[in-house]
Amino acid sequence: MRSWRPHAGYHRSTAEHSGDAESIAFYHSSAWRRVRKMALQRDKYICQLRLSQKCTTIATEVHHKKPRKQFPDLALDLDNLVSCCWFCHEETKERGQRKQVQPVGARVFHVRDGLGDEDRPGGGGSGAL
Questions:
Q1: Of the four, 95, 108, 110, 128, which is 20 to 30 A from 37 by CA?
Q2: How far apart are CA 45 and CA 15, in angstroms?
Q3: Cα gap 30→70, rounded to integer Å
Q4: Domain coordinates in residue numbering, the chain
Q5: Residue 54, phi-psi category: left (phi > 0), alpha (psi -120 to 50), beta (remainder)
């Protein structure tokens, strides 16, 4: 049996910040990865929040407008999701949950279907794995 390994777009602290098994299972699910990619592609990988002065404009995160824990029926609803950069996503969190430093190498995108790296803002790669 193959052991689990992080996939492209997986960020350990996102799934494990709450520490509960339900959150970890949700963020590892194929349904979440699929709808997450759809949200990023819909927003053309551009930050839609622009809350932080450090905004990079390149979206690497997907934020639930209505919190997943309070509205579980909207967790996979594309209309409840918005693409954003890491810095703006941190601005949406309560002060005690914010991280001060962006994780190094936390986001690497290689999209097999859809936009490749060269199609994204600031991209230039081949888009191939």
A1: 95
A2: 21
A3: 21
A4: 12-100
A5: alpha
Rounded to the nearest 10 degrees, the angle between the axes of helix 30-42 and helix 21-28 is 60
Q: Which of 37, 47, 41 is nearest to 8 (CA)?
A: 37
Tokens representing residue 102 in the block: 């962006």
Q: What CA–CA distances, in Å, run from 121 to 70, 91, 93, 125?
A: 33, 22, 25, 11
Q: What is the pLDDT of residues 74-91, one digit of tens each?
A: 999 999 999 999 889 988
Tell me the pLDDT tens digit for each residue of 33-74.
999 999 999 999 999 998 888 888 899 999 999 999 999 999
Q: How many CA atoms lie within 13 A of 111 on its CB side?
A: 19
Q: For 117, which DSSP code? A: G
Distance CA 89, CA 40 (A): 14
Residue 1's identity, in one-letter code, is: M
